[in-house]
Amino acid sequence: AANAGLMAAAILANEDAALAQRLDDWRAALSASIPEEPRDE
């Protein structure tokens, strides 16, 4: 369901610059939260 929501947001962002920016910011934050090197926990 999450992927469908992201796809819907991306479609809506084509017509809404503010939504597009929020989506880009969210994607950048998600990418930044992933460590460069895997670690054992």
What does this structure look like?
This protein has helices at residues 2-13, 17-32. The termini are far apart. It is 68% helix and 0% strand. α1 crosses α2. The protein has one domain (2-32). It contains two helices and no strands. The longest helix has 16 residues, at 17-32. By secondary structure, the protein is mostly helical.
List keywords for this structure.
elongated; mainly alpha; 41 residues
Tell me, briefly, the overall form.
Answer: elongated
Query: How many helical stretches?
Result: 2
How many structural domains? 1
User: Quick check: average pLDDT?
Assistant: 95
Strand composition percent: under 5%
| Alpha-carbon distance between the two ends | 29 Å
Largest sheet: none
DSSP, total strands: 0
Q: Which class do the helix and strand fractions yield?
A: mainly alpha
> Spans of 5+ residues with little confidence (pLDDT < 50)?
none
Give a quick rundown of the structure.
This protein is mainly alpha-helical. It is 68% helix and 0% strand. The chain has helices at residues 2-13, 17-32.
Question: Could you outline the blueprint of secondary structure elements for this entry?
Answer:
Layout: H1 2-13, H2 17-32
Helix pairs in contact: 1-2
